[in-house]
Each structure stands twice: as structure tokens, then as C-alpha cells.
Design a protein that fits this description.
about 425 residues; TIM Barrel; 3-stranded parallel β-sheet
Amino acid sequence: MPAAVRFGVNYTPSQGWFHHWLDFDLDAVRADLDSVSALGLDHIRVFPLWPYFQPDRALIRPRAVEDLVRLVDAAAERGLDVNVDGLQGHLSSFDFLPAWTRTWHRRNLFTDPEVLDGQAAYLRTLAAALADRPNFLGMTLGNEVNQFSAGPHPDPDRATADQIDAWLERMLAACEKGAPGKLHLHAEYDATWYQDDMPFTPAQAARRGALTAVHSWVFNGTAQRHGRTSVATEHHAAYLIELSKAWAEEPHRPVWLQEVGAPAPLVPAEHAAAFTEATVANALDCPDLWGITWWCSHDVSRDLADFPELEYGLGLLTNDRRPKDLARALSRAARDHSYAPAPRTTALTVPADPAARSRCAPGGDVFEAFFRLTADGARPTTILDTRAADRDHLAARALTEVVTPDQVLRTPRGGTRS
């Protein structure tokens, strides 16, 4: 169990959003990082935009890499560690892919040999440039790159689960080659856990890389179905943390809540602080939590066009670097270093078959049963249905009770399961 949970933020520059890489202003970055550090946070996650850094398969721009190193050094001066996302990829509803993978040069992101060579070289280069920085945590392969591999993306790069597994193995190896021993991982949006035909699988998320990352957004049907202050909405991040443990091979594999935010209008601005407090408190009730990294640091400027409305107001800080109430809520949690959750001893069975993972999504029987148990005070975790009778596995995870969704949902509230 970690001695303390890490608290950080996904860094969205206050000036120019992620387009700031085009005309990098170190003074503006320093001012942004000062406002982050003042909240008592200890790390940031940063996002080079892939086509800006590698506009040609054979050209990784030295100046762009130098700017990334300067950002990491500026973070170190403020006591902030840094995780770097490589393949951007997809951010805030926009896709950023280099021209050598699209239209006339259309090649599959996950299977084309030349694209894979280019990606591996890029990830290795970024990692190597930062390998000697003590505050460099490691690489995340990219931001929610699974959204490119299946619907609802309008032009997906189709691949099989085996092909994705090979892709993950190669890209993680490239990061390790560039920066040996760092915390390298991959991270997807929740379709990995919820969508039956998603080739990025829960097993890959829970077994590949240094730790498991989950991204929690309650606009996925949770808040729409259950409401803003419901058990399901306020515990959704905790649910994903515990859901991931069903597939993990290591009994105490660390889990990083790498993205979580308060999206309007489902979580109105005046209720964002309360949502933040509840979400963080419930996540902290999960054993083996590595850290919580809020989305995001600063609001998107209204000078920029075409973002979905919710994206403009997700920041802990305004566009002019003033903290909001939800920033103060996160700051209070970050300054309270107590973290000693009791073990979760009741496990809900989930289907091992990835073609049935929609049962874990909002409205599915696993999802609904988990929150029935939560509402009844059971503090559940999850276990694969194929492991439910494995005594060694149960003992390694300190599990004393295993229940099925059917047992939970057919029992009257407050009743006894049989």
C-alpha cells in the first residue's frame, strides 16, 4: 500500500491551450505552474501534440523536444513531477494525428509497420530526452488512443485485440528503452471497460504497463441515468478503480485515477466543489490507489472556437489563473496526507468475457449491482467470474464474500443475500 496518494492535475496551458507548443512561452508556462503549485499538488500530466512534434515520420523536431524538456525543468523548480503523454492523439473532442497517417497517406495507427516504426522512434526520443530528469515520472503512450480503434469514431483504425496487445508491448518497450526504470503506462477512456467490441481490453489495461490507469467521466450515462448527487455519480471513479482490479494479476497492483473532472451542465459550476469532494473522498476509500490527477488545470480561453461547451469550464483555475471552489476542495484533500482505507472484502463477480463487458456499463447488471452494494454500505470490489472459487486468489486479495449481480439485484434493499 502506498504511503501517500499523489495529487496532481492534467496541465492545460492558460494561453493558447495545447497549441502553445507552436509558439512556446516559458514565462507563461512558469506562471501557470506557479498557480498549480500553490494548490499543494505534486505532479502534472503534460501533452505534446504529436503532429507538432513529429510532422514527418522521419522528423522529430529538436526544438519541440527542447521545449518539452524546458517545461519539465520548470515544473521541477516548483516541486512538480511530470508524466508525459506521447501520442496526442485525441484531446477535448479534437483529433491530432500527423498527416503521414491520414487521407492520401492513410495507414493504420496500430498495425502498419512504418507507422509503428515512427511511433516507437517518437516515444523513445521523448523518453530519452527526459530520462535523466529526477522529476520525470515516465510516459503514458497517449491520451485515450483507444477511441481511434472502434466506433463511435467516424473513421476508426480497426484492429484485433491481439494486434492491440502487440502494439502496446512494442510501444511500452520503446518508452522503457528511452528511459529505463521509469513509470511507463497506457491509458484509455472507459470504453475499454464498457464497450463489447473495443479491441483495447480490460485485461490489457490491468496487466500491461507499470500500473493501471482509469479515466472517469460521469457524462457517459451515469449522471444522466442516476442524477448529479446519486451514489453512482459520486462513486463512479471509485467504481472504475475497483472494476479494474478484477482483471489484475497482481493482488495489489496500483491504480491511477488519471483523469476525472466535473463536467457541466450535468455537474453545474455551483455544485462542482461538492462533486469534487465526494469523488475524491470515495476514491480515497479504495486500497492501492496511486494517485488522483484532476482534469484540468486551467479553463480553455473563450477566445478559442469550436470546443464543446463543457470544455471551456473544466479547469481548477480560470483562464487568468484564479482558483475556483473545486480547486480549493482538491487542495484541501492534497494537503491531508492520511490514506489508510480498510480492505474491501466483498467482491462482485464480473464477466471475464470481454464481449460481455457492457454489463459493467451504466444500466448493466454489474454496474447497478455495484452501486446497490455501495448504497447498502458494503464497500465492494470486483472479481472475474472465472476466479470466484479460486481460494488462493481470494486469500491474496483478502476477499471473504463473493456475490453475483443477480444475487444483489433480486435481494430487497436491506435484505440478506442468499
